[in-house]
Amino acid sequence: MPDIVIRQTAHAGRITLARPDALNAMTYDMCLQIEAALDSWAKDDDVQHVVLDAQGDKAFCAGGDIAQLYDTGMAGDFAFGQQFWADEYRLNAKIFNYPKPVISFLQGFTMGGGVGLGCHGTHRVVGETSRIAMPECGIGLIPDVGGTLILALAPGRIGEYLGTTGYRMAAADAIFAGFADLFVPQDQWFDLIQQLEDGASPDILAQAAQAPGDGLLSALQPDIDKYFAGERLGDIITTLQQVDSDFAKDTLKLLQRNSPLAMASTIEVLHRLRGPTLSMAKALDHEYRFTYRAMEHGDLLEGIRAAIIDKDRRPKWQYADLRVPAIAVSKMLMPLGKNALTLEDVRMTKTTVCFIGLGNMGAPMAANLAKAGLHVIGYDTAGTTAEGVTPAQSATDAAQGADIVLSMLPNGAILRDVAAAVLPVMKPGALFLDCSTVDVDSARAVARDAQDAGLLFVDAPVSGGIGGAAAGTLTFMAGGSAAAFETAQPLFDIMGQKAVHCGDAGAGQAAKICNNMILGATMIATCEAFALADKLGLDRQKMFDVVSTSSGYSWSMNAYCPAPNVGPQSPADNDYTPGFAAELMLKDLGLSQQAAEAVNADTPMGALALAQYRAFVEDEDGLGKDFSAMLPRFTSRGRI
Ligand code: NAD
């Protein structure tokens, strides 16, 4: 079972957390998948809004997966946690700044990392079972994932109270404190989500919302404001100790459970944030200062040990007497210099891509990667290069030290040769991403060799032609492991508008040859229809105007019209200079027939298209022309 289900409905981007047995705790992997989905939906006009929900009735998301952090931290690897937080905080900021409505349905527990996911959108829906909290001080961390922004904006000193005690807010309290917007009875959620999926406006949520009833926080606010007004944690503790009330006693009990260093730092962060310069970026920056140091210098590992490893619930905190020196807080919150949080997606800009095959498709694809800030080193036997790409002397020179080797080559034999040369020099764990159209066997053979060499492999042929390559709107059909696909995803986001993970290695090529079998046949059908229309005296523009909006429409007609000066710009307007060369279409049709033969599939139209392109390329003058040059071929002949 996947930990998360990401999909697109008619009008919504949909994310469902699917780890109910782990209270939907968010793993690193889930965080990266959500970010990739948000990136692609941001520029997809079909997606009006994003809807987040979770399976199970106990929790929307009870936090980040801290077991993962503990293992790496105990092994002395603090970098894993630091990277995880940096990536998670970037996601939190992305949700907060998202250009479309983000709607979340928060049943049961929403805590810590769950708040970062569910409480920064535009429509935060709570119900009868909702319990929202920032309990990080209980494990030696400060409230993070952008939670300090909400806490700093909460009325009076409610932020200090919630951040240090970890108080669990029911629906009314969550709305009062600014963690949620609308109370909607949970038996209505399913219907509302369906309507949102079908394109209903998020305004339906306000129409369904009801009064949440009385919360506790608003009644407690006068006391909270009085006792939590101190400059430092010590002041707050002293004030509470001087008061003889149930509230003061209960609050002290809560505070005595949590990490003093974390609580003192929480108070300090909230005080620093309040004011006209408050922003999500500033909140995350301060949180990251603490979390970056939390394993090495803070109480985090001890806090996780006591909470979920040994489960003794007796953490040995630093400053257990609750007297935290100001200097200790300052040290946790000092600026991080070159390690400071950056909310730009720097994962990829640090990446070196070796691009092999800078032809009609490869050159614009490589240029787009360079434009996005990646370091791209390119090689092509023909000596071609592309804008922003550093040329190399050989494929092996280019591949050495690269994080990703991307190839865009004419056929499977060349791919195998290139792979044999570069796989041995690639960095361990690097990704070989082949975007050429080749036979399934070659893709699988290179995948096996890559695996044997300890490398990742994805076959990801493309659709969209040179126009799509230049515009960065290609569709990728990918085969390979989930990990390899995920590694390739940021590149797909730059070069394309969509990437479909079709299955294991070779599955991308299988999808591609099926697609191109349709393309070959429709291009021939489009060309022969134009030739017939000519002979019937029908104007080509009129023919285009009708067919492009009638049932005969296709990509060949609408996006790549084979008639010169008709429809959008295409190779026909450039004397049929490829574009997509007829010999490449011949290759693809050969691949689909070879595959059909191997699996005993009946593909008569594909076979006919192959015969037509073979005659055109091998016996006539089609070699070197665009595959749409079938049109002058048909117009120059009569019925055969
Ligand atoms: P192309 O012929 O323009 O480019 C291929 C490039 O590979 C050439 O520049 C060639 O010099 C280079 N090359 C050949 N052998 C090499 C080697 N050993 N090392 C380095 N470079 C080498 O072809 P294209 O149109 O860019 O297509 C590339 C791939 O993309 C093909 O597999 C094709 O089927 C597929 N494709 C093309 C289109 C299209 O519209 N052109 C669309 C989708 C998919």
From TrEMBL:
Residues 353-503 form the 6-phosphogluconate dehydrogenase NADP-binding domain. It comes from the Bacteria. The keyword Transferase does not apply. InterPro entries: 3-OH-isobutyrate_DH-rel_CS, 6-PGluconate_DH-like_C_sf, 6PGD_dom2, 6PGDH_NADP-bd, ClpP/crotonase-like_dom_sf, ECH_dom, HIBADH, HIBADH-like_NADP-bd. The keyword Oxidoreductase applies. Gene3D superfamilies: 2-enoyl-CoA Hydratase, Chain A, domain 1, N-(1-d-carboxylethyl)-l-norvaline Dehydrogenase, domain 2, NAD(P)-binding Rossmann-like Domain. Pathway: Amino-acid degradation; L-valine degradation. This is 3-hydroxyisobutyrate dehydrogenase. It comes from Roseobacter litoralis (strain ATCC 49566 / DSM 6996 / JCM 21268 / NBRC 15278 / OCh 149).
